[in-house]
Amino acid sequence: MKNTLMYLCYKRMGVIRVIIADDHGIVRLGTAMLVREIYPLAEICEATTFISALQQLEKKQFSLIILDINMPGGDNVQMIENIRVRYQDLPILILSSYDESIYAARYFKAGVNGYLQKETDPREIKKAIQKVIHGEMYASEAVHRQLLRSLASSRWNKKQDRFPELSDRELEIMRLLASGLSSTEIKQQLNIQLSTISTHKARIFEKMQVTNVVQLAEKFKEMEKGRGLNPADDGE
């Protein structure tokens, strides 16, 4: 309650303070530039780990947190739950390299205000920042249609996130395996060790109750169908 009241009082002052939590310096720099194009007098803080972000949230009241979902100290939806327990009214905008068609729904369900992929056009990122910082929700047209289809078919709670037991990294590796990439290709794309991939792969197989990549690909296709995704729709 104390954090919520302090946040609301701070917001009424009209001061813009943004924290950018990402472990890549070039991303923090680029994002900060976009924020300053909108709010030249904004105070911008940076965090390279999730723990650092939480520590800064304890010290100051922020208008917005722009958060990567794969960074040291946090790589799953529990990051959002940890923030929401302490700061119910703090706007959260996810800026991630993870595929929005797979990850956005679970993060909206956890309580974020917006989800963007890092390769999104800078003009759209600025639009998202403005909307979220003023208390609105932001989703791309593709994700918006996806969420509406899920709500319309009353499948939000049952089918929107069929595999909540998988971490974000496991979901990403599962997607790449299902698309036909080898462990070596995944290593190059995600910049992680082969041993790490092997560990994740074993966990994925166990959680998905499969014994090979072919079976995994079939289950992944079932997940896509369950989400009501239609590639043709996303190309509109």
Report on this model:
- This protein has 236 residues and is an alpha/beta fold.
- The protein has helices at residues 2-12, 25-38, 50-59, 78-86, 100-110, 122-133, 141-152, 156-159, 168-178, 183-190, 194-208, 213-226, 231-234, and strands at residues 17-21, 43-47, 64-67, 92-96, 114-117.
- Helix 5 links the parallel strand 4 (92-96) and strand 5 (114-117).
- The model is unreliable at 154-161 and 227-236 (pLDDT under 50).
- Spell out the helices and strands N to C: HEHEHEHEHEHHHHHHHH
* Major pleated sheet: 5 strands, parallel
| Helical amount | 55-70%
Across the major sheet, the strand order is 2-1-3-4-5
N-end to C-end Cα span: 44 Å
What structural class results from the helix and strand content?
A: alpha/beta
What share of residues are in beta strands?
5-15%
**Number of helix segments?**
13
Q: Write down the overall geometry.
A: globular
Poorly predicted spans: 154-161, 227-236
Features:
single chain; alpha/beta; 13 helices; globular; disordered C terminus
Topology:
Elements: H1 2-12, E1 17-21, H2 25-38, E2 43-47, H3 50-59, E3 64-67, H4 78-86, E4 92-96, H5 100-110, E5 114-117, H6 122-133, H7 141-152, H8 156-159, H9 168-178, H10 183-190, H11 194-208, H12 213-226, H13 231-234
Parallel strand pairs: 1-2, 1-3, 3-4, 4-5
Helix pairs in contact: 2-6, 5-7, 9-11, 9-12
Short description:
The protein is of the alpha/beta class and 236 residues long. Helices cover 57% and strands 10% of the residues. It has helices spanning 2-12, 25-38, 50-59, 78-86, 100-110, 122-133, 141-152, 156-159, 168-178, 183-190, 194-208, 213-226, 231-234, and strands spanning 17-21, 43-47, 64-67, 92-96, 114-117.
